[in-house]
Amino acid sequence: MTENTVINLKNVDVFQQKHLVLSNVNLNIDKGEFVFLIGQTGSGKSSLLKIIYGDLHIGNGDGQIAGFDLKKLGNKEVPFLRRKLGIVFQDFQLLTDRTVEKNLDFVLKATGWTDQNLISERIKDVLEKVGLRSKIKKMPHELSGGEQQRVVIARALLNNPEIILADEPTGNLDPDTSEEIVMLLKQISQSGTAVLMATHDYHIIRTFPSRIIKCESGVIHEDAQIV
Ligand SMILES: Nc1ncnc2c1ncn2[C@@H]1O[C@H](COP(=O)(O)OP(=O)(O)OP(=O)(O)O)[C@@H](O)[C@H]1O
């Protein structure tokens, strides 16, 4: 572990209730790294992400995530850990009853922002980053699937996260749009945010050669080869 480490898991056992999903997980991810997380359905990818964002408690082992010690993480600290993380899922989970701007405004206010000028600036900044500045007043249903996913990525960037966790972020998108989303996540990683992306999409993995971690038979392997 160095000063650049943002995810460090040591000898971690991942449980779903009493079921041991992954044992003895050792994983180190640095600032700015882009990492694919692969493995068959049920192999433990989402469970591993849940450990990282504090949704599952670690049993055995140790974990440091963006400066938080998972062993000492109580329910009260979880929201503070989540502010260091941007979470992007397959189903877009935008609030459907309000505009893009109001979706982002809601998250900033919920995470303690109060100055309306700073809020407006931040919303414009993140929309600029994802190429959607002109869609600020649109409702989610007026956007394509790819655009909605970009808004979700913009939302994940609001609090300048150290890590983006993406669980099948291209699962509902066509191949070209999927490539655009992954290109955007790659760009984000190049500006210093680590990205850990769970995917089943081998076309994407081949198109964007990156570090790969595979969940298989209850353990993780580093740098699995994709044929
Ligand atoms: N809430 C839960 N309670 C009990 N067992 C669970 C729960 N969630 C997942 N599991 C089990 O944990 C194992 C790992 O599931 P997980 O969702 O992490 O796999 P995954 O690799 O993300 O799969 P997928 O690619 O289908 O999303 C599976 O055997 C699953 O049945």
UniProtKB/TrEMBL annotation:
SUPFAM superfamilies associated with the record: P-loop containing nucleoside triphosphate hydrolases
GO cellular component, one term: plasma membrane
GO molecular function, one term: ATP hydrolysis activity
PROSITE patterns linked: ABC_TRANSPORTER_1 (PS00211), ABC_TRANSPORTER_2 (PS50893), SIGMA54_INTERACT_1 (PS00675)
Keywords of this entry: ATP-binding, Nucleotide-binding
Domain ABC transporter: 7-226
Pfam families with a match to the protein in the record: ABC_tran
SMART domains assigned: AAA
Domain of life: Bacteria
Protein family per UniProt: Belongs to the ABC transporter superfamily.
Its job: Part of the ABC transporter FtsEX involved in cellular division. Important for assembly or stability of the septal ring.
Name this protein carries in UniProt: Cell division ATP-binding protein FtsE
